[in-house]
Amino acid sequence: MQIFQWINNEILKMNWLSNIVKLLVEKVFGLSVSDRIGGSIHFFIYDTIKIFILLSVLIFLISYIQSYFPPERTKKILGRIKGVKGNILGALLGTITPFCSCSSIPIFIGFTSAGLPLGITFSFLISSPLVDLASLLILMSFFGVKIAIAYVIVGLILAVIGGTIIDKLNMESYVQGYVREIESPDIEPVELTKKERISYGKEQVKEIIQRVWLYVIIGVGIGAAIHNWIPQSAIEKVIGGNNPFAVIVATLVGIPMYADIFGTLPIAEALFGKGVGIGTVLSFMMAVTALSLPSMIMLGKVVKPKLLAIFVTIVSIGIMIIGYLFNAFSFIFI
Length: 334
Known about the structure:
This protein is mainly alpha-helical.
């Protein structure tokens, strides 16, 4: 048990890094981390470095695993299984694919043009930005093992249920015609060498860091401001436990934003530190990652308005239900 505690504190939470940054703030800058300015600087430097270290390591490892599942191979795997089993497999495969909703949509188009059942492709589309192995480990570093595992489980359940509902509604005719007309050649995936997989992992680290670094910096900056400058009473009034609509507000606020889970985590951490319910915090994170406005605009080019509206409604209601359930049973996780 002690070894797991050490791993959580020193590897995931990086308490050693927090102590180093604290010394930097106090000895070099001459500020106290208990003051607003010193606390903000500590939060910003510590969270930024921690996220980029975790991101680099995890993206490399996951990209290495992902190299065994190119889109061609994934299409073949998904094409063999129908029904709820297919939705479950689609959701699980989403955990080892791109880290934001916008980069998931081209793969979604490829799956749809290949003739895969619509429900399976939507299960993939929901889980891909929402749940991945990197988010599991990074959530552990912020909120602990119980919350991280529960988040992944409910995210996968939402993806399976969402895809199943869309499948039962027989919405195939609401996919834009050009998507079905795209040729999907049956290309045999090239087997990579170990050196090529390592090279692929490094390239993915560089590409994804370049794509998300700004959102991480902005997220950490907002988190530092919330953590040290916005009064707890003001936050509690808007999305605190006494507001029965807090989960709904958090979900609706999250939808227009664009970031991945790495950019929203510092904000979520700060809100949680201010006493916001864990369910409200997770609803905000899920809305940002799964239903960001840019990704919905992109998806609107692929499916017709009715299907887009049904997708957004299903995912939004699912996120809100998850938020209220987490708040109701928060004593289990905290």
